[in-house]
Amino acid sequence: MGLQVGSNPMSMDAIAALLAERFAGDLEDVRIQEPDTIVARCAREKLLDVAARLKADADAGYETLNWIAGVDRRTSFESIYHLYSWKTNTWFELRVDVPRAEPEVDTVTGVWPAADWHERESWDMVGIVYVGHPDLRRILLKDDFVGHPLRKDYVDLAENHPHV
Amino acid sequence: MSERIKTARYPKLEHFSEPNVITTTADFIFSWARSHSVFPFTYGLACCAIEMLTSGFARYDIARYGMEVFRPTPRQCDLMIVAGTVNEKMAPVLKRLYDQMSEPKWVISMGACATSGGPFYDGYNVVNGVDKVVPVDVYIPGCPPRPEALFQGLLELQGKIQQYKFVPEKPAPLAADAPASDVAPATADAAPAGEV
User: Cys-Cys with A37: which of A33, A51, B33, B115 at CB 3.0–4.6 Å?
Assistant: First the structure.
């Protein structure tokens, strides 16, 4: 039949069960978020492996990276990858915990080239370092901005406001 | 409407009847013409730009005031309507574009953000008012201001433009004992004499 947007030949339960079985030990807390999103956690050491396999999965491959969110959970950071599958017309939310003391996680630009600017934005705003990123520099804020303003412990600095 | 707009001397129809000659001052005729052919700069930064664009369309029709020729390049403009939030990354660009405009030039600060930072006053990347970067002639409050408010600001600006004089006035004699720093500083409201 080929790709057909809007068709979902598998039920959400079936996809979740399939992924939980194939990624046993890699994906944790696989659950369904209504109506069409599967949420799961992944250890940051396994991220590159899981990402490549998720994209290449023959039955429920998530070929598209739509966006990456950087979140400050206060005790740790979280890098969230929002994926979309054209095969099954479903979304996948891959959550990776990043410790505050060492906010580093491997880049997924090798798997999804679209991750380039999203990882730059996440680094710009939250300060998660994406190791191996080809061009990790600020994308929204000015080049000489100090700090990462969407961190919960960010304090507004005078040097970021030269026009007073 | 401000007092100076109400008292502006417009040529009346009978002035143009026979013998087709009117007498007036150069100050008046040039200021009158200049104030009715303002070329605004298309400088929408945020949601105020929607109101600015609405002002240009048929329902509100900014052309009634002779200001409909929005230009995309600062070199052809003499009015910058700062419509929206100015952030720290945009501020140097705004200053540069302002410097590229040819004299005489004016700036309207449209809306709460451009005037003071507005709801984003404490923002990590927001300039608290465009007057920190360029001199502002007219402030328009509102979030965003309606097109009518923008027109009120434009009328105020027209009144200000009509005060411009082309011949410098003879400066008042200085008091013998007055320190130089006390000599009539040009305020924002005063018409800069002799500025062409």
Answer: A33
